[in-house]
Amino acid sequence: MGEINFRLRRMGLSLRVAATCLLIILAGGYAAAVQHMFDHYENKDERPGLSMDDITGSFHGVNSEAPMIVAINGSMREYLTDSEHAALLSWLEGTRISEDYDNLDLGENAPADIIDYKCLRCHSRDAKEGGAIGARVPLEYWDDIKPIAYSKQYDPVPLEILTMSTHTHALSMAMVTALTALLFLGTGWSCRWRNRIIALTFLALLADLGSWWLARWCEPFCTVLIVAGAVYGGLLVLQLVGTFVDIWFGRVKPCGE
Length: 257
Fold this sequence. Notes:
It contains eleven helices and two strands; from the N terminus they run H-H-E-H-H-H-H-H-H-E-H-H-H. Helix 9 packs antiparallel against helix 10 (191-217). Strands 1-2 form a two-stranded antiparallel ribbon. It folds into two domains: 8-61 and 157-249, no CATH class; 66-150, no CATH class. The protein is an all-alpha fold. Helices cover 63% and strands 2% of the residues.
């Protein structure tokens, strides 16, 4: 890109105040968008906080067995009799996991009793056996067991909602990115790095939005989505901060300097 003679630093005080207000509005709008993303996706896995399961469940879908099912079918299988294994498996694959955990009507097949008898020797916090596994994976109380007792099945957002969201975000984010880039082009920062930052910002935005769709069929694009979104956000904030600094503290210099 050739030399641009226009510099925000050359503008009068009133216009620099106006440009600063615009930067603050753009930064505030982006911060609100990030907060909205956290609020919108964080409950996908029914646990507080935004996690990888939230993102994967929203854009690709999650269907994974409960960790306890994996354990009793794998490394823990040898410690259970056939009847105990069948009782625990039936419980974990049923729809009354919390209700039947210590259901007295189940008698000796009550999951709480089987776990107490067969698992707490190693899976209690003060266990003398099993190394430190009792501290890492305690099974003494329902609150210990609940996080690993449920299988996860989250469907991705419907295609019509994804289409609507893409329509809204692609246009608005492209305009915000273009406006931020135009302001950044009016600074006196190194022309080479300035142009590279702008190009990388648009590439990150394309990768972010494109991954919304690609992740639906290929789960690794959920990671691309997160990385691209983080890169985009970092570069956008860099441009906003760099523009603000140049407006009030920069010096006017040729673009090629």
